[in-house]
Amino acid sequence: MRDGLRFPLLWLCGPSGVGKTSVGWEIFTRLDRAGITAGYLDADQLGLCYPAPADDPETHRVKARNLGAMARTLRAAGARCLVLSGGVQQAGDVPPYAEAVPDAAVTLCRLRAGTGDLRARFLGRGWRPELMAENEAAAEALDRSDFADLCVDTTGLSVAEAARRVRERAGGWPGRPGPAAATPAAAVPPPSPEPSPAAPRSSVPVLWVCGPPGVGKSEVAWAVFARLFSSGVRAAYVDLAQLGFRRPAPADDPSGHRLRARGLAAVWPTYRAAGARCLILSGGVGDPATVRAHAEAVPEGRFTLVRLHAGADTLRERILLRGRSRGPRLPGDELKGRPAEELLRHAEAAAREAETLEHAAIGARRLATDGRTIEEIAAEAALSLPDPGPAAPHGGRAAPPAT
C-alpha cells in the first residue's frame, strides 16, 4: 500500500513524565484547529487489565490488540490520522504494536529531556517518587539507544513548543492524510484475540460509575479497580472518555457516546481473552439509550450503574481544585489549568446535570459524595459489584506501572 493511502499514525514514546501525553494532546488539538479530522489514544489506557497475565507482564500484547481495534474504530468514524502516546520504552516492545496496525504509516518519535527537567516533571505529577531513580535509569538507557524514527529533546520547551518541534521534525506530520475509511463506524468488527482457557463465556460483572462532571467518577472507579486487582481478582478498567477522542465531533454524535460504545465493543474482547473476571467503567451517562448501547457492547455483562451525586457547592469546590491540577491526570481533561471564571461556568453546568440525573433517577444506586473521601465512596460502590468469583493465580505485574 502506498504511503499516500496509508493511515498516518504519530506515536510518541519516552520515559515517564517526559510529556508524551501533554505533547500528543497538544498536537491533536492543533490538528482540530487546522480542520484535520483526527483521533487520539493513550496506549496505557488500552492495557488496564490487572493483575497482568503471566505471559504478558507489561500488558504489551493487550495494548497492541486494543490499539489495532481502536485504530480501526476511529478510522471508520472518520479520523484521517491518529496521535498515540505511550506504550513502549525499548525497541523490543514495538513489533506487536506495529503488527496491530498494518495499514498505518507509523512515525515513532521518542521524546527526551535532561535529568533536571525530567525529574521536575516526574515529581510534579505526584506519582510515586520512589520510582524516580528507576525512571531516570530507563531514560539514560533510551538515550544510549537509536530506537525510534526520530528523537526530540524537550528540555526547556513548553508543551506548545515541543508539539511544534515534533511536527516539524516529522516532516510536517501528518502531511496529506489518506482517504477516510469507507466502512461505516457501526459496522467495524471487534478484534479477534486468541481464545484463553481462563476466559469461559459466562456472565461478567460490570460496574459503571457515573455522575456529573467533577463528582469524582474516575477516582472512585479507579479505587474500586485497585481494590480488585490488589486482592488478586483480574479486572479490566475503562475510562469511557478515552475511547471517544475524535475531533471534530461528528454532527450526529456530538456527545461522543455512540463512538465510546463502539470503542468499548472493540476493546472488551481483548480484556475478556486476557482473563478479566469483571469490568469497571467510569464515565458520564447521557440517557437510557446510552446505557443500552454500552450494555450491547459487552453482551455477557451484568451491568450495575452507581451514580455519584454531590451538591452544587461540593461540585464547585472539586472543579476549582481540578483546575489547579488536583486529581487524576487524564488526557483530554478540559478543566486543568483553565481560568477561574471558566471553571465556575463548568461548575454551574455540572450542578444542572446533577439535578437532571437526580430527577431521572439514573443508576441502580445513588451515592452521596459530599464530605466523604474517595476510599469511603469506593468501599460503598464496591458493594454493588456482584462477586466475580475467586481470584486466579497470576505471575505477571500486580499493578499498573508508572506512565
How would you sum up the major sheet? 6 strands, mixed
Order of helices and strands: EHEEHEHEHHEHEHEEHEHEHHEH
Which strand-content bin applies to the residues?
A: 15-25%
The strands making up the biggest β-sheet line up spatially as 6-5-1-4-2-9
From the alpha-carbon coordinates, what is the Rg to the nearest angstrom? Answer: 20 Å
Quaternary structure type: single chain
Low-confidence stretches: 182-200
- What is the rounded distance between the termini? 34 Å
Share of residues in helices: 25-40%
Number of strands: 12
Protein structure class: alpha/beta
Average per-residue pLDDT, rounded, comes to 88
What features would you describe in this structure?
This protein has 403 residues and is an alpha/beta fold. Helices cover 38% and strands 16% of the residues. It is built from 12 helices and 12 strands. The protein has helices at residues 20-33, 60-76, 94-100, 115-124, 132-143, 159-169, 217-230, 257-273, 288-297, 312-323, 340-360, 374-382, and strands at residues 7-13, 38-42, 49-50, 81-85, 104-112, 150-153, 204-210, 235-239, 246-247, 278-282, 301-309, 365-368. It has a 6-stranded mixed β-sheet, sandwiched between helices. Helix 2 (60-76) packs antiparallel against helix 8 and helix 7 crosses helix 12 (374-382). The protein is globular, with a radius of gyration of 20 Å.
